[in-house]
Design a protein that fits this description.
Blueprint (H helix, E strand, L loop, with lengths): L2 E3 L2 E3 L36 E6 L3 H12 L6 E6 L26 H8 L5 E2 L4 E4 L4 E4 L2 H11 L10 H16 L1 H6 L4 H22 L12 H20 L11 H11 L10 H8 L28
Parallel strand pairs: 3-4
Antiparallel strand pairs: 1-2, 1-5, 3-6, 6-7
Helix pairs in contact: 1-3, 1-7, 4-6, 4-7, 6-8, 7-9
Length: about 300
Protein backbone atom coordinates (compact mmCIF):
# COMPACT_ATOMS: atom_id res chain seq x y z
CA UNK A 1 0.00 0.00 0.00
CA UNK A 2 1.45 3.37 -1.05
CA UNK A 3 2.29 6.02 1.49
CA UNK A 4 3.45 9.63 1.59
CA UNK A 5 6.02 10.82 4.11
CA UNK A 6 6.48 14.59 4.35
CA UNK A 7 4.99 14.93 0.88
CA UNK A 8 7.16 12.28 -0.80
CA UNK A 9 5.39 9.25 -2.26
CA UNK A 10 6.65 5.72 -1.61
CA UNK A 11 5.29 2.65 -3.39
CA UNK A 12 5.70 0.49 -0.28
CA UNK A 13 4.87 1.54 3.25
CA UNK A 14 7.99 1.30 5.44
CA UNK A 15 5.61 0.10 8.20
CA UNK A 16 3.46 -2.41 6.26
CA UNK A 17 -0.01 -3.65 7.18
CA UNK A 18 1.19 -6.92 8.66
CA UNK A 19 2.83 -8.32 11.75
CA UNK A 20 5.38 -11.01 12.43
CA UNK A 21 2.43 -13.31 13.11
CA UNK A 22 1.60 -13.11 9.42
CA UNK A 23 -1.76 -11.48 10.13
CA UNK A 24 -2.95 -8.57 7.99
CA UNK A 25 -3.57 -5.42 10.05
CA UNK A 26 -5.36 -2.52 8.37
CA UNK A 27 -4.26 0.92 9.50
CA UNK A 28 -6.72 3.63 10.43
CA UNK A 29 -7.55 6.50 8.07
CA UNK A 30 -6.07 9.84 9.03
CA UNK A 31 -8.28 12.63 7.60
CA UNK A 32 -11.53 12.68 9.54
CA UNK A 33 -13.34 16.01 9.03
CA UNK A 34 -17.14 16.07 8.71
CA UNK A 35 -19.66 17.83 6.52
CA UNK A 36 -21.63 20.07 8.86
CA UNK A 37 -18.54 20.89 10.94
CA UNK A 38 -15.43 23.04 10.53
CA UNK A 39 -16.94 25.07 7.71
CA UNK A 40 -17.89 22.15 5.46
CA UNK A 41 -21.50 22.97 4.64
CA UNK A 42 -23.93 20.48 3.09
CA UNK A 43 -24.14 21.98 -0.40
CA UNK A 44 -24.97 20.21 -3.63
CA UNK A 45 -22.16 20.53 -6.16
CA UNK A 46 -19.51 21.33 -3.57
CA UNK A 47 -18.00 17.86 -3.05
CA UNK A 48 -16.17 15.36 -5.23
CA UNK A 49 -15.23 11.71 -4.72
CA UNK A 50 -12.00 10.08 -5.84
CA UNK A 51 -12.63 6.34 -6.04
CA UNK A 52 -11.54 3.11 -7.70
CA UNK A 53 -14.12 0.71 -9.07
CA UNK A 54 -12.60 -2.40 -7.55
CA UNK A 55 -12.02 -1.00 -4.06
CA UNK A 56 -14.81 -2.21 -1.73
CA UNK A 57 -14.28 0.71 0.66
CA UNK A 58 -14.77 3.18 -2.20
CA UNK A 59 -17.82 1.16 -3.23
CA UNK A 60 -19.48 2.11 0.08
CA UNK A 61 -19.27 5.77 -0.91
CA UNK A 62 -20.57 5.11 -4.43
CA UNK A 63 -23.50 3.13 -3.02
CA UNK A 64 -24.42 5.94 -0.65
CA UNK A 65 -24.26 8.47 -3.48
CA UNK A 66 -26.50 6.25 -5.65
CA UNK A 67 -29.03 5.24 -3.00
CA UNK A 68 -29.47 8.84 -1.83
CA UNK A 69 -29.82 10.09 -5.41
CA UNK A 70 -26.75 12.32 -5.16
CA UNK A 71 -25.30 11.57 -8.59
CA UNK A 72 -25.83 15.17 -9.72
CA UNK A 73 -24.80 16.66 -6.37
CA UNK A 74 -21.44 14.88 -5.94
CA UNK A 75 -19.07 14.41 -8.87
CA UNK A 76 -16.64 11.49 -9.18
CA UNK A 77 -13.21 10.62 -10.58
CA UNK A 78 -12.58 6.91 -11.21
CA UNK A 79 -9.01 5.59 -10.99
CA UNK A 80 -7.79 2.90 -13.35
CA UNK A 81 -8.62 -0.71 -12.39
CA UNK A 82 -5.10 -1.73 -11.44
CA UNK A 83 -2.69 0.04 -9.12
CA UNK A 84 0.79 0.79 -10.44
CA UNK A 85 4.06 1.84 -8.82
CA UNK A 86 2.32 5.22 -8.37
CA UNK A 87 -0.63 3.61 -6.60
CA UNK A 88 -4.11 4.43 -7.91
CA UNK A 89 -3.62 6.35 -11.18
CA UNK A 90 -5.64 8.14 -13.85
CA UNK A 91 -5.45 8.37 -17.64
CA UNK A 92 -4.96 11.71 -19.33
CA UNK A 93 -8.50 11.44 -20.74
CA UNK A 94 -11.36 8.99 -21.06
CA UNK A 95 -13.29 6.94 -18.52
CA UNK A 96 -10.38 6.89 -16.06
CA UNK A 97 -9.26 10.51 -16.19
CA UNK A 98 -9.62 13.05 -13.39
CA UNK A 99 -11.91 15.81 -14.68
CA UNK A 100 -11.64 17.88 -11.50
CA UNK A 101 -7.96 18.46 -10.69
CA UNK A 102 -6.35 16.85 -13.72
CA UNK A 103 -3.99 14.79 -11.59
CA UNK A 104 -2.42 11.55 -12.77
CA UNK A 105 -2.38 9.71 -9.43
CA UNK A 106 -4.40 9.74 -6.22
CA UNK A 107 -1.29 10.58 -4.19
CA UNK A 108 -1.27 13.94 -6.02
CA UNK A 109 -4.70 14.65 -4.50
CA UNK A 110 -3.21 14.16 -1.05
CA UNK A 111 -0.33 16.44 -2.06
CA UNK A 112 -2.81 19.14 -3.11
CA UNK A 113 -4.51 18.75 0.27
CA UNK A 114 -1.25 19.21 2.17
CA UNK A 115 2.13 19.47 0.38
CA UNK A 116 3.91 17.85 3.34
CA UNK A 117 1.25 15.17 3.84
CA UNK A 118 2.23 12.04 5.73
CA UNK A 119 -0.04 8.99 5.65
CA UNK A 120 -1.44 6.13 3.60
CA UNK A 121 -2.79 6.79 0.11
CA UNK A 122 -6.26 5.26 -0.05
CA UNK A 123 -9.65 5.71 -1.66
CA UNK A 124 -12.34 6.87 -1.25
CA UNK A 125 -11.37 10.50 -0.85
CA UNK A 126 -14.06 13.13 -0.30
CA UNK A 127 -12.76 16.44 -1.66
CA UNK A 128 -14.12 19.94 -1.03
CA UNK A 129 -14.04 21.94 -4.26
CA UNK A 130 -14.58 25.22 -2.42
CA UNK A 131 -11.58 25.09 -0.08
CA UNK A 132 -9.41 22.70 -2.10
CA UNK A 133 -8.82 20.19 0.68
CA UNK A 134 -9.75 16.63 1.56
CA UNK A 135 -12.72 16.43 3.91
CA UNK A 136 -12.35 12.78 4.80
CA UNK A 137 -10.69 9.56 3.59
CA UNK A 138 -12.50 7.06 5.84
CA UNK A 139 -15.28 5.26 3.99
CA UNK A 140 -17.39 4.60 7.11
CA UNK A 141 -17.36 8.32 7.92
CA UNK A 142 -18.22 9.28 4.35
CA UNK A 143 -21.25 6.97 4.32
CA UNK A 144 -22.49 8.30 7.64
CA UNK A 145 -21.91 11.99 6.91
CA UNK A 146 -23.46 11.95 3.43
CA UNK A 147 -26.51 10.25 4.87
CA UNK A 148 -26.80 12.84 7.66
CA UNK A 149 -25.96 15.87 5.52
CA UNK A 150 -28.22 15.09 2.57
CA UNK A 151 -31.35 13.77 4.27
CA UNK A 152 -30.85 10.01 4.07
CA UNK A 153 -32.46 7.35 6.25
CA UNK A 154 -29.68 4.74 6.31
CA UNK A 155 -28.94 5.25 10.01
CA UNK A 156 -32.25 5.90 11.84
CA UNK A 157 -32.01 6.49 15.59
CA UNK A 158 -34.18 3.51 16.50
CA UNK A 159 -31.97 1.11 14.55
CA UNK A 160 -28.63 2.66 15.48
CA UNK A 161 -27.66 0.09 18.17
CA UNK A 162 -28.47 -2.83 15.85
CA UNK A 163 -26.65 -1.22 12.93
CA UNK A 164 -23.56 -0.57 15.04
CA UNK A 165 -23.53 -4.18 16.24
CA UNK A 166 -23.80 -5.55 12.72
CA UNK A 167 -21.21 -3.09 11.41
CA UNK A 168 -18.66 -4.20 13.99
CA UNK A 169 -19.14 -7.86 13.14
CA UNK A 170 -19.28 -7.37 9.37
CA UNK A 171 -16.19 -5.18 9.21
CA UNK A 172 -13.86 -7.33 11.30
CA UNK A 173 -14.92 -10.78 10.09
CA UNK A 174 -16.26 -10.22 6.57
CA UNK A 175 -15.30 -6.92 4.88
CA UNK A 176 -11.80 -7.14 6.33
CA UNK A 177 -11.97 -10.89 6.92
CA UNK A 178 -11.53 -11.67 3.23
CA UNK A 179 -8.37 -9.54 3.25
CA UNK A 180 -7.13 -11.25 6.40
CA UNK A 181 -7.46 -14.52 4.50
CA UNK A 182 -6.14 -13.26 1.16
CA UNK A 183 -3.18 -11.31 2.54
CA UNK A 184 -2.22 -13.84 5.22
CA UNK A 185 1.47 -14.75 5.35
CA UNK A 186 1.08 -17.89 7.45
CA UNK A 187 -1.26 -20.87 7.44
CA UNK A 188 -2.49 -19.99 10.91
CA UNK A 189 -3.35 -16.42 9.91
CA UNK A 190 -5.17 -17.66 6.80
CA UNK A 191 -7.10 -20.24 8.81
CA UNK A 192 -8.29 -17.56 11.26
CA UNK A 193 -9.34 -15.20 8.51
CA UNK A 194 -11.22 -17.70 6.38
CA UNK A 195 -12.96 -19.22 9.41
CA UNK A 196 -14.28 -15.78 10.38
CA UNK A 197 -15.51 -15.11 6.84
CA UNK A 198 -17.64 -18.24 6.66
CA UNK A 199 -18.82 -18.07 10.27
CA UNK A 200 -20.27 -14.65 9.46
CA UNK A 201 -21.79 -15.80 6.17
CA UNK A 202 -23.42 -18.71 8.02
CA UNK A 203 -24.72 -16.35 10.72
CA UNK A 204 -26.20 -13.91 8.19
CA UNK A 205 -27.68 -16.75 6.13
CA UNK A 206 -29.54 -18.01 9.21
CA UNK A 207 -30.60 -14.49 10.20
CA UNK A 208 -32.04 -13.74 6.75
CA UNK A 209 -34.28 -16.79 6.99
CA UNK A 210 -36.48 -14.71 9.27
CA UNK A 211 -35.56 -11.13 8.39
CA UNK A 212 -35.61 -9.29 5.06
CA UNK A 213 -32.59 -7.15 5.93
CA UNK A 214 -30.01 -7.19 8.70
CA UNK A 215 -32.11 -4.87 10.87
CA UNK A 216 -35.61 -6.11 10.12
CA UNK A 217 -37.70 -4.90 7.21
CA UNK A 218 -35.72 -1.69 6.54
CA UNK A 219 -32.60 -1.44 4.40
CA UNK A 220 -29.90 0.29 6.45
CA UNK A 221 -26.26 1.27 6.57
CA UNK A 222 -25.42 -2.26 7.77
CA UNK A 223 -26.79 -3.76 4.54
CA UNK A 224 -24.93 -1.15 2.49
CA UNK A 225 -21.66 -2.11 4.20
CA UNK A 226 -22.31 -5.83 3.66
CA UNK A 227 -22.96 -5.53 -0.07
CA UNK A 228 -19.51 -4.60 -1.52
CA UNK A 229 -17.98 -7.81 -0.18
CA UNK A 230 -20.92 -9.87 -1.44
CA UNK A 231 -20.59 -8.31 -4.90
CA UNK A 232 -16.93 -9.32 -5.12
CA UNK A 233 -17.20 -12.68 -3.43
CA UNK A 234 -17.73 -15.20 -6.22
CA UNK A 235 -15.75 -13.33 -8.91
CA UNK A 236 -12.74 -12.47 -6.75
CA UNK A 237 -12.50 -13.49 -3.09
CA UNK A 238 -13.58 -17.10 -3.66
CA UNK A 239 -10.63 -17.64 -6.00
CA UNK A 240 -8.01 -14.93 -5.58
CA UNK A 241 -8.22 -14.79 -1.77
CA UNK A 242 -8.81 -18.53 -1.25
CA UNK A 243 -12.17 -17.96 0.47
CA UNK A 244 -13.36 -21.13 -1.21
CA UNK A 245 -15.31 -23.20 1.30
CA UNK A 246 -18.50 -22.05 -0.41
CA UNK A 247 -19.67 -19.52 -2.98
CA UNK A 248 -22.17 -16.76 -2.31
CA UNK A 249 -24.48 -18.61 -4.71
CA UNK A 250 -24.45 -21.60 -2.34
CA UNK A 251 -26.34 -19.59 0.29
CA UNK A 252 -30.00 -19.28 -0.77
CA UNK A 253 -30.92 -16.43 1.59
CA UNK A 254 -27.70 -14.45 1.15
CA UNK A 255 -27.78 -14.86 -2.63
CA UNK A 256 -31.38 -13.63 -2.88
CA UNK A 257 -30.57 -10.74 -0.49
CA UNK A 258 -27.52 -9.75 -2.54
CA UNK A 259 -29.49 -9.79 -5.79
CA UNK A 260 -32.26 -7.68 -4.27
CA UNK A 261 -29.74 -5.01 -3.27
CA UNK A 262 -28.06 -5.17 -6.68
CA UNK A 263 -31.44 -4.56 -8.33
CA UNK A 264 -32.25 -1.47 -6.24
CA UNK A 265 -32.26 1.85 -8.07
CA UNK A 266 -28.76 2.92 -9.03
CA UNK A 267 -26.89 0.07 -7.37
CA UNK A 268 -25.98 -1.91 -10.51
CA UNK A 269 -24.30 1.23 -11.86
CA UNK A 270 -21.86 1.09 -8.92
CA UNK A 271 -20.80 -2.49 -9.76
CA UNK A 272 -18.31 -3.66 -12.40
CA UNK A 273 -17.50 -7.37 -12.20
CA UNK A 274 -14.95 -7.30 -15.04
CA UNK A 275 -12.98 -4.59 -13.29
CA UNK A 276 -13.10 -6.54 -10.03
CA UNK A 277 -11.44 -9.46 -11.76
CA UNK A 278 -8.81 -7.21 -13.36
CA UNK A 279 -7.96 -5.76 -9.98
CA UNK A 280 -7.99 -8.83 -7.77
CA UNK A 281 -6.17 -10.96 -10.34
CA UNK A 282 -3.57 -8.31 -11.12
CA UNK A 283 0.06 -9.48 -11.09
CA UNK A 284 1.14 -10.31 -7.55
CA UNK A 285 4.25 -12.20 -6.53
CA UNK A 286 2.33 -13.80 -3.68
CA UNK A 287 -1.18 -14.32 -5.08
CA UNK A 288 -1.04 -14.32 -8.89
CA UNK A 289 2.52 -14.25 -10.29
CA UNK A 290 1.48 -14.44 -13.95
CA UNK A 291 -1.37 -11.94 -13.65
CA UNK A 292 -3.76 -14.15 -15.63
CA UNK A 293 -7.39 -13.02 -15.26
CA UNK A 294 -9.91 -15.89 -15.28
CA UNK A 295 -12.77 -15.96 -17.79
CA UNK A 296 -15.49 -16.81 -15.27
CA UNK A 297 -17.57 -17.31 -13.36
CA UNK A 298 -20.74 -16.41 -15.27
CA UNK A 299 -23.31 -15.17 -12.74
CA UNK A 300 -26.78 -13.74 -13.40
CA UNK A 301 -27.25 -10.93 -10.87
CA UNK A 302 -30.40 -9.84 -12.72
CA UNK A 303 -32.22 -13.10 -12.02
CA UNK A 304 -35.40 -12.57 -9.96
CA UNK A 305 -34.47 -12.46 -6.29
CA UNK A 306 -37.81 -13.90 -5.15
CA UNK A 307 -38.03 -11.68 -2.08
CA UNK A 308 -41.24 -9.85 -2.91
Amino acid sequence: MGVMIDGQYFEEDPAPDSETSGEFKRKASSIRNWIGQSGFAAEAGRYHLFVAWNCPWAHRALLTRALLGLEDAISVSYAKPRRTAQGWVFDADGAFDDPLLGVMAVHEVYGRHRPAYTGRITVPVLWDKQTGVIVNNESADIVRMLNAAFGGDLYPDDLAPQIDEWNELIYSTFNNGVYRAGFARTQEAYDKGVADVFATMNKVEAHLAGSRYLCGDRFSEADLRMFPTLARFDVAYHYAFKCNLHRLMDYPNLWGYAREIYQMRGVAQTVNFDIYKQGYFSPSELRNPLGIVPAGPVIDWDAPHGRG
